[in-house]
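Extended Data, panel c. Modelled sequence:
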Amino acid sequence: MQSARRLSFRGCVCCTPLSMSPQRRPIATPRVRASAVSSGGRAFTAAAGGAPSAAAQGGSMTASAPKPHRIDIHHHVAPPKYIEEMRALLQPPTIAWTPERTLADMDEAGVATSITSITTPGVWIGDHAQGRRVARDCNDYSAKLAADHPGRFGMFAALPLPDVEGSLRELEYGLDTLKADGIVLFTSYRDKWLGDPAFEPVMAELNRRKAVVFTHPEAPLCCRNLIPGINEAVIEYGTDTARAIARLLFTGTAYRFPDIRWIFSHGGGSLPMFADRFVRAGRLPVNAPHVPNGVWPELKKFYYDVAQIEHPMGLAAITWMVPISQILWGTDFPFRPGSAYVKGLGEFGFSKDDLRKIERDNALALLPHWR
């Protein structure tokens, strides 16, 4: 099992804060403010934290906020049974995860609610029976965590893809029995990306249910250990997110299943850099029938979280690509602390209204029961 993946996560850069030189912090720009105007005209109201946060006022501290109000859409948990079964494949922050640490980080960053998910390597590593068992254990644990801490946790239920039959069963259990907020899927499963025809029954059911689907990157078999000393999280995760989006677009999956509400991690990965290439690829005869409305309407319909892009380069890219209404607050805890995002987004130059939308209100548009 270990030799097949040959992962080397020890000391990966995703576990260390990114520091930005003060000289490179941008002030508010007309483009950032303009993106708020282009957010579709929807007005959202917050249910908690009536006063602006310190971050919204340009500060980096949250002590002055009257109560936690942020919704963390990208927040990982690691159930004890999951750690026991997957330990050889897990990154150190995942192994060290505890409910106490997660709650402490949420409190420090003014997070009211975190929607939890399982991170890489997921629950399926080659054996269907094991994948079904691990998925059920993880989902039951996440549901109990939410029950034990009312209002603090939601959950995205894990599925044992590429086991389609097992995934359909767990999808039903997660959404109907556990009342999960949505489903977590990975960008690829060894040699298959989201949008592969093999996953069509799962896509159809997700569409029927109008499900929220949170996606997290993984490294496909083709692209592991390509550069010595550079693990998959450095380059491949962002690239695989773009690959998955391309597969969803150019197989027609996104168009044929328009009611799936997709969330893509890390600001869409490398997608903002490739967006214009995607648009031109969508005009090719082989691709055009699959994106009859064009590529841009699909890209601007998706949601993107700010996990790992709390720096000016990442935030500038995503705010140029999509309206503010499509951007969600996410931390990637336990790999990054929530306080880094309070600071990074607070210093970027967002207006108070736009920051409030990213921190909470856009998530409420997807998950209104958290009002």
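Residues 1-65 have pLDDT under 50 and may be disordered. This feature is highlighted in the accompanying rendering.
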